[in-house]
Description:
Number of domains: 1
Order of helices and strands: HHEEE
Number of helices: 2
Largest sheet: 3 strands, antiparallel
Number of strands: 3
Shape: globular
Distance between the termini: 15 Å
Structural class: alpha+beta
Amino acid sequence: MEGVERDSAKAAANLAKHHVDFADAALSLEDPRALTVSDPDSTDEERFVTLAADPQCTVLVTVYS
């Protein structure tokens, strides 16, 4: 999970809202079959959208900058 910065408050909010643990989402970014594209909806910062699987083989869509 190198290069991934954890925000505890945001991680808790995402867990409550999406039922996805921060660690699993971060690990999904290491999926060798992941597909990452630039976020076309981002206007004020460079963001990316990744479609990948977490360690339990759940497919996740992760948006990050």
